[in-house]
Protein backbone atom coordinates (compact mmCIF):
# COMPACT_ATOMS: atom_id res chain seq x y z
CA UNK A 1 0.00 0.00 0.00
CA UNK A 2 2.81 2.41 0.92
CA UNK A 3 4.58 1.74 -2.38
CA UNK A 4 1.30 2.32 -4.27
CA UNK A 5 0.78 5.69 -2.55
CA UNK A 6 4.37 6.65 -3.32
CA UNK A 7 3.82 5.92 -7.02
CA UNK A 8 0.59 7.94 -7.07
CA UNK A 9 2.26 10.88 -5.35
CA UNK A 10 5.17 10.72 -7.76
CA UNK A 11 2.80 10.91 -10.72
CA UNK A 12 0.91 13.82 -9.18
CA UNK A 13 4.09 15.79 -8.65
CA UNK A 14 5.43 14.95 -12.09
CA UNK A 15 2.19 16.09 -13.77
CA UNK A 16 1.85 19.24 -11.65
CA UNK A 17 5.29 20.90 -11.57
CA UNK A 18 6.06 23.09 -8.57
CA UNK A 19 7.78 26.44 -8.55
CA UNK A 20 11.54 26.41 -8.42
CA UNK A 21 12.10 22.85 -9.67
CA UNK A 22 15.61 21.85 -10.57
CA UNK A 23 16.74 20.59 -13.95
CA UNK A 24 16.80 16.89 -14.80
CA UNK A 25 19.43 14.88 -12.98
CA UNK A 26 22.46 13.50 -14.78
CA UNK A 27 21.76 9.93 -13.64
CA UNK A 28 18.62 7.95 -14.40
CA UNK A 29 19.02 6.14 -11.05
CA UNK A 30 18.60 9.42 -9.19
CA UNK A 31 15.15 10.82 -8.48
CA UNK A 32 13.74 13.99 -7.05
CA UNK A 33 14.79 16.53 -9.70
CA UNK A 34 11.15 17.58 -9.99
CA UNK A 35 10.86 18.34 -6.28
CA UNK A 36 11.79 21.78 -4.90
CA UNK A 37 15.52 21.78 -4.24
CA UNK A 38 15.65 25.07 -2.37
CA UNK A 39 15.36 24.44 1.39
CA UNK A 40 13.20 27.55 1.72
CA UNK A 41 10.46 25.84 -0.29
CA UNK A 42 9.80 23.40 2.56
CA UNK A 43 7.79 24.63 5.55
CA UNK A 44 8.60 21.44 7.46
CA UNK A 45 11.93 19.58 7.44
CA UNK A 46 10.57 16.70 5.38
CA UNK A 47 10.21 15.85 1.68
CA UNK A 48 7.17 14.06 0.23
CA UNK A 49 9.44 11.53 -1.47
CA UNK A 50 13.04 10.46 -0.95
CA UNK A 51 15.75 12.14 -2.97
CA UNK A 52 18.53 10.27 -4.74
CA UNK A 53 18.67 6.62 -5.68
CA UNK A 54 15.40 4.96 -6.51
CA UNK A 55 14.07 1.93 -4.72
CA UNK A 56 15.44 -1.22 -6.30
CA UNK A 57 15.25 -4.94 -5.85
CA UNK A 58 17.30 -5.97 -2.81
CA UNK A 59 20.98 -6.06 -3.70
CA UNK A 60 22.86 -9.36 -3.71
CA UNK A 61 24.84 -10.65 -0.74
CA UNK A 62 28.14 -9.66 -2.37
CA UNK A 63 27.09 -6.09 -3.11
CA UNK A 64 28.72 -4.55 -0.03
CA UNK A 65 31.88 -6.70 -0.09
CA UNK A 66 33.94 -3.91 -1.66
CA UNK A 67 32.35 -1.15 0.41
CA UNK A 68 33.56 1.15 3.17
CA UNK A 69 31.17 3.13 5.39
CA UNK A 70 32.59 6.44 6.59
CA UNK A 71 30.95 8.31 9.44
CA UNK A 72 30.79 9.69 12.94
CA UNK A 73 29.18 8.24 16.07
CA UNK A 74 25.93 7.67 14.13
CA UNK A 75 27.72 5.24 11.80
CA UNK A 76 29.73 3.88 14.71
CA UNK A 77 26.47 2.51 16.12
CA UNK A 78 25.76 0.86 12.75
CA UNK A 79 29.25 -0.65 12.83
CA UNK A 80 28.65 -2.12 16.28
CA UNK A 81 25.27 -3.49 15.24
CA UNK A 82 26.74 -5.12 12.12
CA UNK A 83 29.65 -6.55 14.12
CA UNK A 84 27.27 -8.12 16.64
CA UNK A 85 25.27 -9.73 13.85
CA UNK A 86 28.39 -11.09 12.19
CA UNK A 87 29.72 -12.44 15.49
CA UNK A 88 26.40 -14.25 15.91
CA UNK A 89 26.92 -15.94 12.54
CA UNK A 90 24.50 -13.76 10.57
CA UNK A 91 25.25 -12.19 7.20
CA UNK A 92 25.06 -8.40 7.49
CA UNK A 93 26.23 -5.93 4.83
CA UNK A 94 28.55 -8.52 3.32
CA UNK A 95 32.20 -7.85 4.12
CA UNK A 96 31.79 -4.08 4.27
CA UNK A 97 34.42 -2.21 6.28
CA UNK A 98 33.97 0.86 8.45
CA UNK A 99 35.93 4.07 9.03
CA UNK A 100 34.28 5.73 12.00
CA UNK A 101 35.17 8.07 14.82
CA UNK A 102 33.07 9.98 17.30
CA UNK A 103 32.81 13.71 16.44
CA UNK A 104 34.17 13.08 12.93
CA UNK A 105 33.08 15.51 10.22
CA UNK A 106 34.05 16.43 6.69
CA UNK A 107 35.70 19.56 8.10
CA UNK A 108 37.98 18.04 10.73
CA UNK A 109 38.70 15.12 8.39
CA UNK A 110 40.71 17.63 6.35
CA UNK A 111 42.95 18.55 9.30
CA UNK A 112 46.37 17.04 9.83
CA UNK A 113 46.56 13.81 11.79
CA UNK A 114 47.89 14.18 15.33
CA UNK A 115 47.30 12.82 18.82
CA UNK A 116 44.36 15.18 19.34
CA UNK A 117 42.65 14.75 15.96
CA UNK A 118 39.53 12.63 15.51
CA UNK A 119 40.57 10.77 12.38
CA UNK A 120 39.48 7.11 12.22
CA UNK A 121 41.97 4.29 12.51
CA UNK A 122 42.70 1.52 10.04
CA UNK A 123 44.88 -1.48 10.85
CA UNK A 124 45.67 0.10 14.21
CA UNK A 125 46.88 3.42 12.79
CA UNK A 126 45.07 6.73 12.87
CA UNK A 127 45.11 8.18 9.35
CA UNK A 128 43.42 10.44 6.85
CA UNK A 129 40.25 9.02 5.34
CA UNK A 130 41.49 9.13 1.76
CA UNK A 131 44.62 7.14 2.68
CA UNK A 132 42.57 4.46 4.45
CA UNK A 133 40.17 4.14 1.50
CA UNK A 134 43.15 3.63 -0.81
CA UNK A 135 44.66 0.95 1.45
CA UNK A 136 41.30 -0.82 1.60
CA UNK A 137 40.97 -0.66 -2.17
CA UNK A 138 37.30 0.15 -1.63
CA UNK A 139 35.18 0.40 -4.78
CA UNK A 140 32.05 1.75 -3.09
CA UNK A 141 32.41 4.58 -0.59
CA UNK A 142 29.38 5.40 1.55
CA UNK A 143 29.73 8.65 3.51
CA UNK A 144 27.46 10.02 6.22
CA UNK A 145 28.88 13.19 7.76
CA UNK A 146 27.31 16.46 8.78
CA UNK A 147 26.05 16.13 12.35
CA UNK A 148 29.37 17.54 13.61
CA UNK A 149 29.77 19.99 10.75
CA UNK A 150 26.76 22.22 10.25
CA UNK A 151 26.71 23.80 13.72
CA UNK A 152 30.44 24.52 13.63
CA UNK A 153 31.15 25.42 10.00
CA UNK A 154 27.69 26.41 8.81
CA UNK A 155 25.73 24.65 6.09
CA UNK A 156 27.41 26.07 2.99
CA UNK A 157 30.96 25.60 4.25
CA UNK A 158 30.07 22.06 5.29
CA UNK A 159 29.05 21.35 1.69
CA UNK A 160 32.38 22.77 0.47
CA UNK A 161 34.25 20.56 2.95
CA UNK A 162 32.37 17.49 1.77
CA UNK A 163 33.25 18.25 -1.84
CA UNK A 164 36.90 18.65 -0.85
CA UNK A 165 36.92 15.38 1.07
CA UNK A 166 35.32 13.44 -1.79
CA UNK A 167 37.81 14.99 -4.20
CA UNK A 168 40.70 13.77 -2.06
CA UNK A 169 39.20 10.27 -1.89
CA UNK A 170 38.86 10.12 -5.66
CA UNK A 171 42.44 11.30 -6.13
CA UNK A 172 43.62 8.30 -4.09
CA UNK A 173 40.97 5.86 -5.36
CA UNK A 174 39.85 7.17 -8.77
CA UNK A 175 37.70 4.14 -9.60
CA UNK A 176 35.55 4.41 -6.48
CA UNK A 177 31.80 5.00 -6.70
CA UNK A 178 30.66 7.66 -4.23
CA UNK A 179 27.45 7.29 -2.21
CA UNK A 180 26.58 10.27 -0.03
CA UNK A 181 24.04 9.46 2.68
CA UNK A 182 21.79 12.17 4.05
CA UNK A 183 22.43 13.33 7.60
CA UNK A 184 19.76 11.82 9.82
CA UNK A 185 17.37 13.88 11.98
CA UNK A 186 17.04 14.42 15.74
CA UNK A 187 13.99 13.86 17.95
CA UNK A 188 11.47 16.67 18.37
CA UNK A 189 12.26 17.70 21.94
CA UNK A 190 15.93 18.38 21.18
CA UNK A 191 16.42 21.99 20.08
CA UNK A 192 20.19 22.43 20.46
CA UNK A 193 22.43 22.94 17.44
CA UNK A 194 22.52 21.43 14.96
CA UNK A 195 18.78 21.84 14.82
CA UNK A 196 16.64 19.49 12.82
CA UNK A 197 15.98 22.27 10.33
CA UNK A 198 19.71 22.87 9.84
CA UNK A 199 20.27 19.19 9.13
CA UNK A 200 17.38 19.11 6.66
CA UNK A 201 18.60 22.19 4.78
CA UNK A 202 22.08 20.65 4.67
CA UNK A 203 20.65 17.46 3.16
CA UNK A 204 18.86 19.37 0.40
CA UNK A 205 22.03 21.20 -0.57
CA UNK A 206 24.03 18.00 -0.26
CA UNK A 207 21.72 16.34 -2.76
CA UNK A 208 22.23 19.25 -5.15
CA UNK A 209 26.00 18.76 -4.82
CA UNK A 210 25.62 15.08 -5.67
CA UNK A 211 23.63 15.89 -8.80
CA UNK A 212 26.20 18.47 -9.89
CA UNK A 213 29.15 16.12 -9.37
CA UNK A 214 27.68 12.80 -10.51
CA UNK A 215 27.69 11.18 -7.07
CA UNK A 216 24.95 8.93 -5.73
CA UNK A 217 22.68 10.30 -3.00
CA UNK A 218 21.18 7.80 -0.56
CA UNK A 219 18.37 9.45 1.39
CA UNK A 220 18.55 7.36 4.57
CA UNK A 221 17.02 10.23 6.56
CA UNK A 222 13.77 9.80 4.63
CA UNK A 223 12.87 6.59 6.49
CA UNK A 224 14.03 8.01 9.83
CA UNK A 225 11.69 11.02 9.83
CA UNK A 226 8.12 11.24 11.10
CA UNK A 227 5.51 13.41 9.35
CA UNK A 228 7.03 16.52 10.92
CA UNK A 229 10.59 15.63 9.98
CA UNK A 230 11.82 14.43 13.36
CA UNK A 231 13.59 11.18 14.22
CA UNK A 232 11.15 8.47 15.24
CA UNK A 233 11.32 8.01 19.01
CA UNK A 234 11.60 4.23 18.56
CA UNK A 235 14.79 4.75 16.56
CA UNK A 236 16.48 6.96 19.19
CA UNK A 237 18.74 5.41 21.84
CA UNK A 238 19.50 8.66 23.72
CA UNK A 239 16.21 10.60 23.98
CA UNK A 240 17.23 12.25 27.27
CA UNK A 241 20.58 13.38 25.95
CA UNK A 242 21.60 14.15 22.35
CA UNK A 243 18.51 12.69 20.72
CA UNK A 244 20.31 11.51 17.58
CA UNK A 245 21.84 8.06 18.04
CA UNK A 246 20.09 4.90 16.92
CA UNK A 247 18.56 1.87 18.54
CA UNK A 248 18.89 -1.56 16.94
CA UNK A 249 15.49 -0.95 15.34
CA UNK A 250 16.85 2.22 13.75
CA UNK A 251 19.85 0.31 12.41
CA UNK A 252 17.55 -2.31 10.92
CA UNK A 253 15.59 0.40 9.08
CA UNK A 254 18.88 1.90 7.87
CA UNK A 255 20.16 -1.42 6.52
CA UNK A 256 16.81 -2.14 4.88
CA UNK A 257 17.01 1.18 3.06
CA UNK A 258 20.60 0.57 1.95
CA UNK A 259 19.83 -2.88 0.57
CA UNK A 260 16.79 -1.66 -1.38
CA UNK A 261 18.47 1.48 -2.76
CA UNK A 262 21.63 0.08 -4.31
CA UNK A 263 23.26 0.66 -7.65
CA UNK A 264 24.68 -2.24 -9.57
CA UNK A 265 27.55 -1.45 -11.91
Tell me about this structure.
This protein is an alpha/beta fold and 265 residues long. The chain has one domain: Rossmann fold. 34% of the residues lie in helices and 11% in strands. Strands 4-3-7-8-9 form a 5-stranded parallel beta sheet. It has a two-stranded antiparallel sheet with strand order 1-2. Helix 3 (129-136) packs parallel to helix 5 (155-172). The longest helix has 18 residues, at 155-172.
Q: What is the top-level CATH class?
A: Alpha Beta
State mean pLDDT (0 to 100 scale): 90
- Give the number of helices: 7
The order of strands across the largest sheet is 4-3-7-8-9
Largest beta-sheet characterization: 5 strands, parallel
| Derived structural class | alpha/beta
Distance between the termini: 30 Å
Quantity of strands, as a count: 9
Tell me roughly what share of residues is in helical segments. Answer: 25-40%
| Principal-axis shape | globular
> What amount of the residues lies in strands?
5-15%
Question: What would CATH call the homologous superfamily?
Answer: SGNH hydrolase
Instruction: Give the second-level CATH assignment, the architecture.
Output: 3-Layer(aba) Sandwich
Low-confidence stretches: 1-26
What letter string, H or E per element, gives the SSE order? HEEEHEEEHEHHEHEH
User: Gyration radius, to the nearest Å?
Assistant: 18 Å
Total domains: 1
**CATH topology, which one?**
Rossmann fold
Can you tag this structure with a few keywords?
single chain; 265 residues; alpha/beta; Rossmann fold; five-stranded parallel β-sheet; 7 helices; 9 strands; 34% helix; globular
Amino acid sequence: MKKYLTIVLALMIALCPVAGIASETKDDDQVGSWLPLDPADYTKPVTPLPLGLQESDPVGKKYFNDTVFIGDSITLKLQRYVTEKRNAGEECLGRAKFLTAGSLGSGNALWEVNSESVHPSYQGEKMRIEKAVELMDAHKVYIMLGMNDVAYFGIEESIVNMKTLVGLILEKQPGAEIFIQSATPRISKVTSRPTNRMLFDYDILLYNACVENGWNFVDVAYVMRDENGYLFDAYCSDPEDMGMHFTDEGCEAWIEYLTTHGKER
